[in-house]
Automatic annotation (TrEMBL):
Region ranges (Disordered): 319-344
Pfam families named among the record's database cross-references: MPAB_Lcp_cat (PF09995)
Top-rank taxon, per record: Bacteria
Feature: compositional bias, Basic and acidic residues: 326-344
Protein name: DUF2236 domain-containing protein
InterPro entries assigned: MPAB, MPAB/Lcp_cat_dom
GO MF terms held by the record: oxidoreductase activity
Residues annotated as domain ER-bound oxygenase mpaB/mpaB'/Rubber oxygenase catalytic: 73-282
Length: 344
C-alpha cells in the first residue's frame, strides 16, 4: 500500500484542491512543531559567541553550538542524519559491511542502531574530539569498525557526508543553511575526528572536498538491493520520530531534498512537483525560523537520542561481538532475495 502523500488526485480536480490544502496545513504544522523549542526560550548569545570564534582554532565549540544547539532540533537532526546515511548506503562497498546480508544491526534493530550512532556523534560534539572523553568515544568507534576492511576512500566519503550535508541541503533548497565560516568549522571538526580515526588524504578545503565527493559518487554510487532496503528502513524509522498526525509527510519531505543521483541509486520515486514544493517550503520555513527566533538553551544529541541506549557506558553501545578483522563481502556479492524478504 503506498504511503499517504505519495499520490495526488488528478490535477485541477476538487480532490486535488482538498488534498493540497490538507498537505499544506501538514507542512505548516511540521514547521511549527520544529520551532517549539525556540518559541519558549529567551534570546541566547550564540550568534555573538560564534562571531568571536575562529573556525579552525575553535572548531569544537562552534560545531557544538551549531549542530547540537542551534540546529539541534531532534526532527531536523534526524532528517539530516537520514539523508547522510542514505548517501553512504548508495555506495555498495560501504553498504555491505553495514547490511551484512541482512544480519546487520541496521536491519535487525534500526532505531537502536540509529540512536547509538547519534549518541556517538553527540558525545564527540559535546566533549570535543581533542578531549579525553571524545578520544575515548572515537577509539570505541574504531574498535567497532576494526572487524571490517574499510579503505581510506570509503572512510573519507562517510566523513564527508557529515561535513557537507548541510551545504547539500542548502543547495537543494536554494538557500544558505550555514555561513562559509560556519561550514569551515564543521570541516575542521570532522577532519579532526577523522585524523583521530587514522583517516588520511583529506582535501585541503571544504570546496575541494565537495568536488572529490561528487566525483566519488559518479564513480561508485549504484543501486544495490541491500542499500535500497536500508534506505527504506531509514525512511520508515524517521517517520516514527514525527508526531503521529504528521508521519505521512516525513518521506516526501526527505525525498524532496534528495538529488536525482541519490533517488536513482535507491530507486526511490521523485515526489510530485507540488508536493516537492511544499516540502521545500516547509524546510525553508524552519531554517528561516532558526535565523530569526531566539536560540535554544544548551543541549546535546546525547540528551535527545540517548534515553534508550547504554549511555554513558560506550563500551556497551554498538556491536558487542569480538572477533578477528575480516574483509567486506566481494564487490560482486548481492544480498539474497530470501534474506531481503525475511528482513522486511
Amino acid at each position: 500500500m503506498p504511503r499517504r502523500g505519495w499520490r495526488s488526485a488528478p490535477r485541477g480536480s476538487p480532490g486535488e484542491t482538498r488534498f493540497l490544502s490538507l498537505h499544506g496545513r501538514g507542512q505548516i504544522s511540521i514547521v511549527v512543531r520544529m520551532w517549539t523549542d525556540r518559541l519558549a526560550t529567551k534570546q541566547g548569545s550564540i550568534s555573538r559567541e560564534l562571531e568571536r570564534l575562529d573556525p579552525e582554532r575553535d572548531n569544537e565549540r562552534m560545531t557544538h553550538l551549531l549542530v547540537e544547539v542551534r540546529y539541534g532540533n531532534s526532527i531536523f537532526a534526524a532528517v539530516v542524519y537520514t539523508l547522510a546515511f542514505m548517501r553512504q548506503m548508495s555506495i555498495p562497498s560501504i553498504m555491505r559491511p553495514v547490511y551484512r546480508r541482512g544480519t546487520g544491526d541496521i536491519v535487525r534493530a534500526t532505531r537502536q542502531r540509529n540512536d547509538d550512532t547519534l549518541v556517538f556523534f553527540g558525545e564527540i560534539m559535546r566533549s570535543g574530539h581533542s578531549s579525553g572523553r571524545g578520544a575515548e568515544v572515537i577509539d570505541r568507534m574504531n574498535e567497532i569498525h576494526a572487524r571490517y576492511k574499510i579503505d581510506n576512500h570509503q572512510n573519507l566519503y562517510t566523513l564527508a557526508s557529515l561535513i557537507l550535508e548541510a551545504q547539500r541541503i542548502g543547495d537543494a533548497l536554494g538557500m544558505e543553511v550555514m555561513s562559509s565560516r560556519e561550514r569551515d568549522a564543521l570541516y575542521y571538526f570532522w577532519r579532526g575526528v577523522g585524523e583521530r580515526m587514522g583517516i588520511t588524504d583529506f582535501p585541503a578545503t571544504k570546496e575541494e572536498f565537495l568536488e572529490w565527493v561528487l566525483q566519488y559518487e559518479r564513480d561508485n554510487a549504484a543501486y544495490s538491493e541491500g542499500g535500497a532496503l536500508i534506505a527504506r528502513l531509514l525512511l520508515d524509522d524517521l517517520a516514527l520520530r514525527f508526531p503521529k498526525p504528521l508521519r505521512w509527510a516525513s518521506t516526501p519531505l526527505v525525498l524532496a531534498l534528495c538529488d536525482e543521483g541519490l533517488l536513482r541509486a535507491h530507486r526511490l520515486p521523485r515526489p510530485p512537483r507540488w508536493q516537492r514544493a511544499l516540502g521545500v517550503a516547509a524546510m525553508r520555513g524552519f531554517l528561516v525560523g532558526v535565523r530569526v527566533l531566539p536560540d535554544p538553551p544548551d543541549r546535546s544529541w546525547v540528551d535527545q537520542f540517548g534515553a534508550d541506549t547504554a549511555y554513558p557506558d560506550f563500551a556497551r553501545i554498538g556491536q558487542q561481538r569480538v572477533g578477528p578483522r575480516r574483509t567486506a563481502e566481494p564487490d560482486h556479492a548481492e544480498p539474497d532475495h530470501a534474506e531481503i524478504e525475511q528482513a522486511v
